[in-house]
Design a protein that fits this description.
By secondary structure, this protein is α/β, with parallel strands linked by helices. The chain has 2 domains: about 220 residues, 3-Layer(aba) Sandwich (Rossmann fold), CATH 3.40.50.300; about 250 residues, P-loop containing nucleotide triphosphate hydrolases (Rossmann fold), CATH 3.40.50. It contains 25 helices and 16 strands. The strands form 3 sheets. Strands 5-6-4-7-8-3-9 form a 7-stranded parallel β-sheet, with helices on both faces. Strands 12-13-11-14-15-10-16 form a 7-stranded parallel β-sheet. Strand 14, helix 15 and strand 15 form a beta-alpha-beta unit. Belongs to the DEAD box helicase family. DDX56/DBP9 subfamily. GO terms for molecular function: ATP binding; hydrolase activity; RNA binding; RNA helicase activity. It comes from Cladophialophora chaetospira.
Amino acid sequence: MKRKLDANDAPTVEVSQNGTTNDVSFDSFSLDPRLMQAIAKSNFSHPTPVQAKAIPLALQGKDILAKSKTGSGKTAAYVIPTLQAILRRKATSSAKSTSALVLVPTRELADQVHKAFNTLAAFCSSYLQTLNLTQRTSDAVLHAVLQDSPDIVVTTPSRATQYLDSSRLSLADVQQLVIDEADIVLSYGYEDDINAIATALPRGVQTFLISATLTSEVEELKSIFCRDAAVVKIEDAEEKGEGITQYSVKCGEDEKFLLIYVLFKLRLVKGKCLVFVADVDRSYRLKLYLEQFGIKSCVLNAELPVNSRLHVVEEFNKGLYDILIAADDQEVLGGVMKRRKPCAEEDEANEMSEEDDVEKRPAKKAKMSKNEKDFGVSRGIDFQNVSCVINFDLPTTSKSYTHRIGRTARAGKAGMALSFVIPKDKFGKHRPTSIASAKTDERVLEKIVARQEKKGNELKPYHFDMAQVDAFRYRMNDALRAVTGAAVHEARTQEIKQELIKSEKLRKHFEENPGDLRHLRHDGEHGAIVRHQAHLKHVPDYLMPAAGRKALSTDHVGFVGLRSEKKRKDDKKPTGRKARFGGRSRGKIDPLKSFSTRKKR
């Protein structure tokens, strides 16, 4: 299997296209010319396997249950037939009504789906209207748009029931229902909302259930909404995860920080990287730690408003940051909401063990507030061109692991997953970096290995030569001492304060109460500041291991010299300041080396 980097610095892989249908084209679907124009503009050359199988069935009016990996084109598989059905109806009727409802678990995914509809409806946008009901807009504006009966409404179940209860949203004329990420919708605590929506929908609605896995929750939704659904399951090489090379590293708690520093500073990992940690506090600790070495990263924080999180994802996708640290605690919370029964698709013993893990989690996290439901972190977000996923903190279940590593190796590209595992005998040995969830790492790893082997994948142990990187340990300790608990707390607080200052909703309040704004800004000038140590940003040549030096590119040798390359070149020229003044350049020369007993003439 070959690995190479494409124009986006993302690795690609040459794999056999088992199960693909290269002979199928979008022309064979007899779509509206305006849709075909948008498809061509989006550079869709051929339908993906899930699109090739699902779109023809959907155009026949059948209910669809589609299981395919994230990034395999599932969104377009329901957007295209939904738009086609609406355009066909509008050709025979001028009545305005909401005819398509799309339910997603998170606001981030709602924004992405809304953009997908707008992209593929670009050449008929004046003819149909799409509304994202989760957007940060005043209720008065949303109410006005709803009165105009948008053709497509994209929303979360809780937001939909909120507008249903107030009679501002009508589902009486809905003919297409889509539930995206169906395998996790109920885990977010939307059971009551789903039942309310099912009651409000008319009979005979065409339903799309879109999922990355088939679980008992999907079966439950199928029994509520579907009538003899056509099941589309894609099991090609990409779906089985053959494009992902998986490694696990057993190390001490503090050695996690040592190894991730070496990986990024010596550029042993190339391309964009997603780093998953246990919680938000941990994400800021890791970010501040990496900053000590001049390594830039950004944090995807579930505490921040959805627009801020989407902005972080956009910056990451554009390449402004190559490292994104995601606190996947919302996925853990979602798992506590509802215990899942084993289904035919999953290993019964494995699922039973994972439920045991859930029971041991703190009871105080057993419920999510109404606001928290919409704030997922990793699922459904479109991270583009991710070449590596690092599980800095191992997830608590094998299912979470599968979803995490699914962020890489998309659309025929290759990827790598690296997981740090704390052996039981090393747990609690380094208190400043210890977390409670690491106690079960070895047991979780066994479940992950079993799950991956069942899919035909291998999770290989990787043994770092710690002797080569041990020289960096004192630098790691210096950086960890600088990143205190107070500094982490201040970093989290500062980010929330900045959101308050930039908030449009609070602008009027600050205009009427300038003292509040002044105090808020003044508070930010004080507090715990991380002690930056300039010497940690450079890697001296004597510390560089031989293997690390080979991994570095020729343009960047991993350390910054005392003088820039430009000045060194100028010093060698026969003309210029150095030549004119007899080799004496103020502050640029060692007097002992330049000393001469010869008399000048």
